[in-house]
DNA sequence: GCTATGCATTGATGTACATCAAGAAATGAC
DNA sequence: GTCATTTCTTGATGTACATCAATGCATAGC
């Protein structure tokens, strides 16, 4: 477990890397994302304080995610082996599965407006800290679409 | 750990249930799914032989998923507590996270055709065993759209 | 200060997929 | 076997969102 200090913009891991690490965020904000064959970026997860950010790829296979720092961030880095040895936090794992399940259900059943509303409720602190285009990327819509959703919601009030 | 025999069509768990169980499939096929506010069904997961099917909801909260048997199925049922006590299979959990991650990335970056092709590659045995409309529901598209994708693919050969 | 770069918004147009409706084919009940 | 139900397909139409392009605002570099 090594503590490192990543300046805003630092790339910690790139798609295709084999030795994927696990990043425990102490302060700041990380993000993990892919870039698809069409060159489009899709944010998989934001990692604020106390989050564990990692690619879930199988051991010894190239990982799928880029991970970088959106803010100056202090992180504890470990290998997966280290983490497994010291007995991982089961509850955290289960919570993680719950989060993923919610995300999948949301992606399958909600439209742009519903996704945005869900996001603002679930991550009220993150929305202040990242550009809207990243929120859009996380939600699976374009910045333009998000802008229009927000416009529409602000009028209704 | 109780062994039960679920006839095709049996509903094992419904959305809103509190005491969500864990189902280890011995033979047959389960499926877990939600129904959204618009009444639409979305398949979250298929559970063939040796799969663990469960709602990942937090303990003591109403779960989100229905679980039923698509074929006559033999299952071992346990509570989450039981499973946690006897030390869960960490590798299985990590593999599960990997699967979820892939699903999320696919939902965000692939169109109907790509999703279908990915599914046939990843689950070649399941596609034979379920009606196409369930495949469509798993992929997050309508049966009509799936039909057209398949038509288009068959012509290209 | 000025200029360059990135971000958000707005409008015009395009498109992938949904929805609706009808018919054909397969499956199941009895 | 026959009838009913479900599944799959096909066509016509609708719509949510993407894409493309232009503009206004910030912010950052120097």
Can you tell me the CATH superfamily of the largest domain in chain A?
A: Jelly Rolls
Strand order of the largest sheet of chain A: 1-8-3-6
Order of helices and strands of chain A: EEEEEEEEHHHHH
In round numbers, the mean pLDDT of chain A is 91
* Rg calculated over all Cα atoms of chain A: 16 Å
Return the CATH topology of the largest domain in chain A: Jelly Rolls
Structural shape of chain A: globular
CATH architecture of the largest domain in chain A: Sandwich
Q: Say what oligomer this is.
A: homodimer
Largest interface, per-chain counts?
A-B, 31 and 31 residues
CATH class of the largest domain in chain A: Mainly Beta
Number of helices of chain A: 5
Number of domains of chain A: 2
Residue runs with pLDDT of under 50 for 5 or more positions of chain A: none
Say how many strands of chain A there are.
8
Kindly report how far apart the N and C termini of chain A lie: 48 Å
**Share of helical residues of chain A:** 25-40%
Q: Report the β-strand fraction of chain A as a percent range.
A: 25-35%
Please describe the biggest sheet of chain A, giving its number of strands, its sense, and whether it closes into a barrel: 4 strands, antiparallel
**SS class of chain A:** alpha+beta
């Amino acid at each position: 477990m090594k503590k490192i200090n990543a300046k805003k913009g630092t790339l910690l891991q790139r798609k295709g890397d084999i030795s994927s690490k696990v990043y425990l965020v102490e302060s700041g904000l990380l993000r993990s994302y892919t870039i698809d064959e069409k060159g489009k970026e899709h944010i998989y997860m934001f990692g604020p304080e106390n989050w564990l950010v990692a690619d879930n790829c199988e051991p010894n296979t190239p990982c799928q995610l880029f991970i970088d720092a959106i803010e100056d961030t202090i992180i504890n880095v470990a290998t997966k082996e280290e983490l497994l040895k010291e007995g991982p936090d089961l509850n955290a794992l289960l919570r993680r599965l719950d989060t993923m399940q919610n995300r999948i259900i949301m992606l399958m059943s909600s439209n742009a407006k519903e996704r945005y509303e869900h996001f603002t409720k679930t991550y009220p602190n993150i929305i202040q800290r990242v550009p809207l285009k990243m929120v859009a990327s996380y939600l699976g819509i374009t910045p333009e679409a998000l802008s229009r959703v927000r416009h529409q919601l602000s009028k209704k009030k």
